[in-house]
Design a protein that fits this description.
Order of helices and strands of chain A: HHHEEEEEEEEEEHEHHHHEEEEEEHH
Distance between the termini of chain A: 11 Å
Strand content of chain A: 15-25%
Shape of chain A: globular
Number of strands of chain A: 17
Largest sheet of chain A: 7 strands, antiparallel
Radius of gyration of chain A: 22 Å
Helix content of chain A: 25-40%
Structural class of chain A: alpha+beta
Oligomer: homotrimer
CATH topology of the largest domain in chain A: Naphthalene 1,2-dioxygenase Alpha Subunit, Chain A, domain 1
Chain lengths: 402, 402, 402
């Protein structure tokens, strides 16, 4: 679990100016990319999926990021667990199918075999002195929040439970534990993962870059988010069963913005994030009506969700190389909704598919410009305030090595 | 504008032997390649095009090399200017079209908008303390010499004006300000840019590698460039309006060979660089006849031209990766020449197209051999004298960091 | 012949634990890969082919590995010689055809011309002070053992002659000097060369990974290699003209396992390594019958052969990039065997083609898992003992720089 510390990292971190973008090297150096995986991603909570993907004992799926592969499964007691997909013998992947059901995982190379609790069964022909209890699969930490599965593969695990506890009542009406994935898509972009994440973290770019989104979402222009609009939404929200508090943790001024929940209004005529403004799927959870709002939900630094009254979109920005990131998007509807009957997939995904295509382009040209030796980080706008929290968190974690 | 200094660079420079090729590391190390862009290319004059490409105010084209992109344009006062294509906010490319006409450049990401003088107009939603005058596009230095446009993007700008002044009278008869690009081609070669440039800098390889060139150009064998041949050319040249001096700056023994003008004879029967020896386009500028000669013209270390009586070829060797270079070639004819009437493009480009194809191959196998751990730089031949000037200039600039 | 020493290499070597796999960095770091070529491969004996490929004076073939290219040829005295394919002038490849017959090698770039003894003929236009005797092609060391050609390009040459002398009597009955290549194949695998070589060095993986091989070869399970089976093979071997000693050099406990010869039994019903167990080609050399055995032969650390009674398979694991290796396999039959008449190529290659396809897959997923920051080298099984010899040899050679 060791890796090389990038040369001159401390001086590079010192060169960062609060309120300004990060220097070029964070987006262009191979050694910093590898450090990002080993020190940042491996010590962060990552949203990997939903319990509906692994309903039965032995059900599993793989989640991969950077150089890592993780087996997420239901063990024999029906608990969700996650293991590093790395044989404890000579390191082979022990599981090569992306999803399935298994009783054991037998390494394809030398047949070291692990049960659903990660325990090594025996260790073929290893001799009498071999102690298999020392060679179980490395286990990742797991949290399941309202059906959403989060993992952390490293030893330095950010505190998450306090935030999840505070979030629970706010999220409850949406019944997130009862969802099904209606569509999944991956948008590969030739850019460092931080540029892709930063793009998601600010809506300063929404007005110029996202015509479709900006037609319906008041977040694109804070001055358009009038008290009148907010109060109308909150009134309908109370009727529909929605709390209206904002949750933002830690408190401003403290390091990291690990939890964020805020519901804000769509423009009049829009009941949800759709082309027509009309609903695209059955109401979620306990909701009894549309409030004309949408929720921005962030759980940990890396994991982002949008919750409309009738569907949920999850976003993650998965590094696959120094300047290659998979923007992975999942559209969820209520667990009992039936495609073609309760929702039309094309209509459902329209807004965030179009928006992701826009982002692919602007993130790519952002990386192209940042690659210039002449790039000098500029000042962040007020609407980009969320990025500074990310920078603080990121720089702190890579400095200490995770 | 900072970059990492390659580890052990000083010792590597010390290991170079005058009169011998450069050591392997200069052609194989990623960190040295990035230093080449940041310290050498960004502080060199680069020929990027001709004023005929941007005739009107607002006309622009992009020029790209290494990690850099530059917007070259006519401003509202009709002056030629060049700007780094990097937004001063978070670094996005502000211009993505390769050529066009624009009144402003509005960054596709957050809509920071720059005028033709590079000034930032406002800076949307940046708050009252924001001073847009501090965030104009970085401007590159520009020189226009007889219609040829040169830029330098860095702060350490080599002296060029003295040389241009001395060159002016020699170049005048060709009317370079009145040219049109008849054809442009790019020959990508899997080799470091220095190997591609070195190939151009010496004619020791012409006899074995370039059959077509060697049939007509006496430079391939200095002993074949007889006094008789030279005098015949000069006699015709005087009649046709051509000066015959050689210009070579700085003087030999000094560092750098930044300017070079020399006219030398083709073999009898060749009026220009063509398959048949017959003219391929109208006489350039003020010329009144053919002298059976051709001019080697070098302006700055990186920029090379061949001037026949009826056409001009420009060559540059643009790095795109450590071992990937675009050999970019432009064929120019007199500005009023009409394709299909005054010249046939295939006939025009024949010689230097064939010669470039030969070079693609030999530069590639040069790189393959230099990649060997067993490569030891060998001695330069007399006919390779020009390379040492390049080495001196290159080593000096990368040592000091540009 | 110099290269950069990887940063922190000594500490990395110190971190290796005897009896355990190597740490991740040896398989993931670019600088270590380049050091592998310069310090390990260039100072190792490499099997490159068979004398039947270069029967006549001037016959040559190229052998390439990593960044290196070697010309292997018969000189005018009919001796086998090998030269680095790097011009002593500016490093170009001097030979670009993969095989052929030549009197001289004339560099395509500047026409420096070398004879079959590697001597530079002249050196065109190099002036009166140039001494061509100082600029012959660098010569690699060559050993021909029973028709098999081995080279070593570096200056630190491992002792090989003592081992070859001891091996001669054991190998003699197979008549290896009289072979012809019936088929050659290359299996590219996205993994570091060491993972590919390690895969070959142990049969712990045979039972789970190689169904076809395990059906016939008792090596897959040492307990199945009964005295009865061994004695039956040895009895038949004496009748067929086969010695039955084991050769293993240096003695165990000493560093390096450079020579290994052992004949072991196939399971009953198998006369050779074929699908049916039936012979697939004429008996080799002086053999008079089948003994139902096969020979594992290792010559130097990198070179491996399997000798059945009727055919020979040679294996090498040629690095082409950090995580890209060509598994090169050659099937040999007796020199006078005629395809379609004495052997059917598809039948001949079946076993080791299938086995190589299996290995492609498991070596790939081994590399994928080793790439994880979470990979921790595990303990080697008894059946993997040969790998430790390789590790000892490898670490010793890269520490000293070759």
């Amino acid at each position: 679990m060791t890796h090389q510390q990038p040369i001159g990292l401390d001086a590079l971190i010192e060169s960062c100016t609060p309120g300004f973008a990060l220097p070029r090297s964070f987006y262009t150096r191979e050694d910093i990319y590898h450090h990002d995986i080993g020190a940042y991603w491996n010590n962060s909570w990552i949203w990997v999926g939903h319990i509906s993907q692994i309903a039965a004992s032995g059900d599993y799926f793989l989640f991969e990021y950077g150089t890592e592969s993780v087996i997420v499964l239901r063990d024999s007691a029906n608990d969700v667990r996650a293991y590093l997909n790395v044989c404890r013998h000579r390191g082979s992947r022990v599981c090569v199918e992306h999803q399935g059901n298994a009783r054991v995982f037998s390494c394809p190379y030398h047949a070291w075999t692990y049960d659903l609790n990660g325990h090594l069964r025996g260790g073929r022909a290893m001799g009498p002195d071999f102690d298999p209890t020392q060679y179980g699969l490395f286990e990742a930490k797991v949290r399941v929040f309202e059906g959403l599965i989060f993992i952390c593969t490293g030893e330095t695990t950010p505190e998450i439970d306090t935030g999840l506890d505070q979030l629970r009542a706010l999220a409850a009406p949406f019944g997130l534990g009862n969802l099904k994935a209606a569509h999944s898509a991956s948008y590969p972009v030739p850019a460092n993962w931080k540029l892709a994440l930063e793009n998601y973290m600010e809506c300063y770019h929404c007005a110029p870059s996202h015509k479709e989104y900006s037609r319906s979402h008041s977040l694109k222009d804070p001055s358009s988010m009038t008290n009148e609009l907010v109060e109308a939404m909150q009134q309908k929200g109370r009727e529909a069963g929605l709390p209206s508090q904002v949750l933002s943790l830690p408190a401003e001024g403290q390091q990291g913005m690990n939890f964020y929940y805020r519901r804000y209004p769509l423009y009049p005529g829009y009941q949800t994030g759709s082309k027509s403004g009309e609903p695209v799927a059955p109401l979620l959870g306990n909701l009894t009506g549309y409030d004309g709002g949408t929720t921005d939900l962030q759980i940990g630094v890396l994991n982002n969700f949008l919750i409309y009254s009738d569907y949920v979109v999850g976003y993650r920005f998965v590094p696959t190389a120094l300047q290659r990131t998979d923007i992975q998007v999942v559209w969820y509807v209520r667990g009992d909704a039936v495609a073609g009957q309760d929702y039309d997939p094309d209509t459902l995904i329209w807004l965030w598919h179009e928006t992701s295509l826009d982002d692919e382009c602007i993130i790519r040209i952002n990386q192209e410009g940042v690659n210039s030796h002449h790039f000098v980080p500029g000042p962040l706008a007020d609407m980009e305030w969320g990025m500074q929290s990310f920078y603080d968190n990121y720089l702190s974690m890579i400095r200490s090595g995770g």
